Records
---
Amino acid sequence: MQRIYQTLALLLLVPFFCRTGIAMPPETEPPRPMIIAHRGASGYLPEHTLAGVAMAYAQGADLIEPDVIISKDGTPLVLHDIYLDTVTNVRDVFPDRGRSDGRFYAIDFTVDEIKRLKVSERIDARTGHLVYPQRFPAGKSDFRVPTLAEEIELIQGLNQSTGRNVGLVVEFKQPAWHRREGKDIAKIVLSVLSRHGYRSRTDNCYLECFDADELKRLRSELKTDLKLVQLFDGDAWKSQSGEAGDIDVAAMQAGLSDVATYADGIGPALRLLVRIDGQGRSSPNEVVAEAHARKLIVFPYTFRRDAVPDFCPSFEALVLLFARDMGVDGLFTDFPDQTREILQQNPALR
Ligand code: CA
């Protein structure tokens, strides 16, 4: 009798997996475009918390993005800034531990000390106000800064218990600054990833960084075989002569050719992939086609339902512009569930 119930339960789950597009194991080709949970499900829970990672996982993210910095005792922690003061109560717990610039640097604290801090919604360091006041209420509940190892264990544990294969997009924060502070962030992170089984390009793990020299070093000196993604902010390849927001096509083409010598993809700001006409309407520019011609994947950032750029009328239009009209390979989003929903309403996309 019990077996019948188990079978029934499984049969009930099958349409769920089909409807949501969550692949049943074994998974072969990754879905396109992939949904990359930007710092977890950060539209709903404070960024870079294990709760936010679990929620992103449950919402069907294909990849989850930890940003990484290094503690005083050399441990990789999942934190977006080299500072603790924008997302934790460090000023209350360690009031005397700031530097002369008034900031509290994670690298001045041990993991044990950082574990005493509570994580909350992001504060703008300049204004002291919440960046997204309509998101999770500040100072509520109890969230901590995870180590990279803890976050990987959570994702791998869920991979085992669900049978899915959710991967990682790991960003190294400010490698040159870390080096000046006496820490080789790339080396430290590679060793933690290797210990958890991420070593080759077939493993479900991408490394990303804004620092091109560090990505080149990862490939040539540190000999990593993991997939590398070169990040670009909105000012890349800026045209000197053209309209505001226009890019210098020759500089972009040369830049992408260079990236193709050491990396597997690019992670551009949304604006870098868009052309805006005199009426404010947006359309794809040449960047995605030029990247794909060089066999580079494209993971643009960041898709936020509550902060849609003014070149798009709605979140849905934004997702469709990039996923359908440009054919990008992954979307960094604070809202994995709503991004997934839009992709599923357009069957050609998932
Ligand atoms: Ca990031």
---
Amino acid sequence: MKSLVRKNILKVTPYKAGKPIEETKRELGLKEVIKLASNENPLGTSPKALAAIRKAVTGVNRYPDSQGFYLKRKLAEKLSLSPENIVLGNGSDELIDVIIKTFVENDEEVLTADITFLEYEIISRVNGRSVATVPLKDFRFDLPEMKKKITGKTKLVFIANPNNPTGTYVSKKELVGFLKDLPGHVLVVLDEAYDTFIDVPDFPRGTDFLKNNNVLVMRTFSKAYGLAGLRIGYAVGAPVLTSYMECVRQPFNVNLLAQAAAMAALDDDDFLRKTRKMVLEEKQYLSDALRRLKVSYVPSVANFILVDTAQSGVEVFQAMLKEGVIVRDMQQYGLNRYIRVTIGTRRENEKFVKAFKKVLKK
Ligand code: PMP
């Protein structure tokens, strides 16, 4: 009975994930399908992480370390922070939930951009919190406008840096300007899911802004580290913030295999270097191909590109599926002409370009 459901849940539109490869093969009777829809790592997973998973798998009769002791210690070393600065999560998705539950009271508000990672709004609403949004300007977070929108009720500001689905970023100067004289009741979350792909000098690393005690940074192992299927991410902040997040998260939120894999992945510099090189080179390849096709796109510092198809993005998405290429339509974001394409390997990108040419001609 619908009347049993909490009122704010009735208003939630569920998150629509990228279409899985197996489902597409099954539904369309295709043998070969590539997925460029969820910003995953097309090179797979670090061989060191795979070996660590194999080794750890015989231990799954035991609960995982609820404190994530070794992983936090390793991350802390890498980031020149202390383990108390770190909270581990079942992907950064879970951390968004933990952050909202820890910091936003019933009558307080979450502030973000109108076109950004949808989970900020969905999880806020599931928790019964209201959300205010500020339109992007030229596909970028408009921090001066967002600052003007801050009221006595604003508690949390989500900034995806780089932004998903646009691939744009806020610069160091813009972030410093935003944080300067920010009211003391506001906490800023910098979501750096794509930080490993950055190749611009004026990108602000969130970890440089922790001393203000009003900034949290989120990162994930789902993208460059190739561990999306295991679900692991982390948040960093001042212990006065993270210690309360520790009270809110589930005791065994990060599973045993994910902890082992993440530890090993952090040691695999070679895999990370290869991934970064591939993404940067292939982004150039895809951008060049799009320019040749006279298709406009938003320049991206992440591992995906937002592409203006100049027609219905949903129809392009469906036509691309028939060609065995899964991209992401942007209808949920209100970008009806657009698709988002994850940077793949050269072979995948060639397949994308070939299929896209064919679909555009129809
Ligand atoms: N933040 C952003 C900006 C993202 O794009 C994503 C992944 N789509 C996430 C967070 C969630 O990542 P995770 O797999 O760690 O939950």
